[in-house]
Amino acid sequence: MLSIAKFGAKLAIVGGAVYVTVNNSVWDKSDYANNAIIKVKEALRETTEMLKDLPSKSSLADKWNYGVERVFDTLANSSTSYECVKNKVNDLISTNQSNKS
User: Among 49, 60, 71, 100, which residue is least crowded by beta carbons within 10 Å?
Assistant: First the structure.
């Protein structure tokens, strides 16, 4: 029953989008499509201004790639880092035990 409702909602959204675009002559000539785009931009003026302030796609990709590289570098070097920490902890424990004796 729920899957039928989901399908119906999706169908309504797609059907509504097709109806609105056909009704506004988006599919006729490029002039009509350009006019429709202008109307949408005017209706959503604040949104289009906010979209201009977003960072570029390339800078987001660079930041994402840098983060991915850092994660995998950390994972690649984790075994040596953990080995070093383990040795330091063992040295500290043995030093503390020898001082108590």
Answer: 100
